[in-house]
Amino acid sequence: MASGHLFQCGACQAFPDVRIVIHDLIQVPGRIAVRAEISGTHQGELFGIAPTGKQVSFRLHGQSLIAETV
Questions:
Q1: What angle do CA 58, 59, 60 make, to 5 degrees?
Q2: Which domain holds residue 36?
């Protein structure tokens, strides 16, 4: 999911108080979907943007394919 990439590139340092709330998690054979909200205080640099000290929140909608393992 897209959110995984965000947190791999320094978002945990930029938003040390990050909070992720999962609103819906739906699974059907071979797929999974999530609807979530991510919030935190911008306290560190992210993508060249200096810390603002502001509370931010954004919604996430994503889906992924699930590989079968035998």
A1: 125
A2: 2-65
Classify residue 7: in a domain, yes or no.
yes
Joined tokens for residue 43: 């306290």
Query: What is the rounded CA–CA span in Å between residue 38 and residue 17?
Result: 11
Share of the chain above pLDDT 90, in %: 60
- 60: alpha, beta or left, given left = phi > 0 and alpha = psi -120 to 50? beta
Residue 68 binned pLDDT confidence (cut-offs 50, 70, 90): confident
Query: What's 51's domain CATH number?
Result: 3.10.450.50
Distance CA 14, CA 48 (A): 11
